[in-house]
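User: Structure with C2E, tokens only please.
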Amino acid sequence: MRILIAEDEPSLRENLQWMLELEGYEVVAACDGQDAYAKAKIQKPDLVLTDVMMPLLDGYGLIRALRANAGTSTVPIIMLTAKADRADVRAGMNLGADDYLTKPCRREELLEAVQARLQRSSSLEQAAQRLQNETRYAMQIDTLTALPGRDLFEQQLESAIEHHSGVALLCLGLDGFAKINESLGTGVGDLVLREVGKRLNLYSAQWIQPTAHDAVGRIGGDQFAVCMAGLDHEDTLHHRATEVLRRLAQPYVVNGHTLFLTASAGSSLYPAQADSAHALLLNAESALHHAKPAGPGSLVHFDAAMNRRVARSLQIHNELHHALAQGDLQVFYQPQVNIQSGNVVGFEALLRWHHATLGWISPTEFIPIAEQSGIIVQLGQWVMHTAAAQAAQWLTQGHRNFRMAVNLSVRQFAGKELPALVAQVLNSTGLPPAMLELEVTESMALQSVASTLATLHACKALGVKLAMDDFGTGYSSLAYLKQYPLDALKIDQAFTRNITQDVGDAAITRAIVAMAHSFGLTVIAEGVETAEQLDFLRGLHCEEFQGYLFSKPVPADEAVKCFAGFRG
Ligand code: C2E
Ligand code: MG
Ligand code: MG
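Assistant:
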């Protein structure tokens, strides 16, 4: 303990110093107020003993200065007054002194006062520390559900790992929770979250062999986590996770509404799949991320391939911009053939990406990533422009009676720019509008039927053709087919593949062709690989086909040779 003595009278100062040092205190001596203040700032004493009457800066000035300085504002101060003048004492106490002693003071008196002040100050410090810890803890508790927040939950996970050889973690995300907030208000949403917290707490208290380190936390807006300490067995984890999902799927009755809500879950195990609390949390979240697209109420257990997939899509995401800018992307063309005549009547433009280290990356992998990041808009513009320019070039070379089909992503439908883009592409390439075909998918209607219709009609008004791609794999709603201003329908290769073996697929294909014809649409079968498949399609009066039987998608210089036609 360090004590600063401010006293201008040397003998008194030395006497005080001697008495205190005898008791084991470290003493810093100052001969006036200014000297004392300068030393206090640097040496940070645990207590200050100060005379009142001193040159340069008196005791009051020193108290005022110490209290005003952040580093010394709470240091205990004992005044030494020559006479027990009440007014003197009052003035000092008002400025912030904690106690006073009258000079000359006896040894016991001095030590008693010093000890009392030091003790009080340290217990005050402890109380402040405790208060600080408590507020920090409170800040980590989610006020809505009274569950630990993300940081605190991670700490709890850490201590579970310290005390148990195995720990299982379950991350939960409520399916479609945003809809509840949107349609019924956040007040109802809050009550649902609270109820979810309650159910999780209740269940975790009920399972066989609960431990002190089991924990439930709210780790995000609509995300919760359950730590199961002492559990390292996949079967038990699966059993508990299934039970958690079952309980969360029970109807919620809030403010007179009965709500049906499910949760999806991702799980991970320590030490089998993660070597720290942090990794365990990230892995379970990664598994949850995979569970979400699998549909409401899904449960996915983490496996190491997930992280590799995540890393790969991150890399693709990061490098797509460069690929487009550096010309690593190419458009390949797959010919479309008239089944009756064998003539090539069109091409489908298909994106290709050759990556320096990853090799060829399929559009089925990078298009969804491009959709998420939004770069699909630039990508789509570039493909449409490149393909139209290619078609225009073939036209000037004397090839006639063909269309160029370009795939459109859902995102390109969401904005209002599509008709303007199409007009701009036609304008700059000089391609006759009827030679450009836009391939759309049924999922675009998920955005909004009204705006989809408006966009389709606006494109149609420019004179381009419209084809429904991958028909049969999505919603395949007849209502859409009737409403949309389509020219052609493409039967997905999933059906074509089995038409000669599977009576079901054959029947569906027959029905699709008949229905499309009744709406006046041309039918294009995708993925035709064998002569038998082609014969079957010919029998159905399907107009066109596209597939490896004739040609794979190939670069422009090879595609142009296809104009010779299919003479199978
Ligand atoms: P899609 O539009 O249905 O394209 C047909 C896919 O079937 C192409 O795959 C094509 O290579 C493949 N294919 C063609 N004939 C056969 C066959 O006989 N057998 C088999 N097994 N497959 C065949 P690809 O090129 O990998 O494209 C996959 C999907 O990626 C496309 O499906 C399309 O949805 C999307 N895509 C490709 N390029 C673009 C693009 O420029 N923009 C957008 N938005 N999407 C694109
Ligand atoms: Mg297509
Ligand atoms: Mg298709």
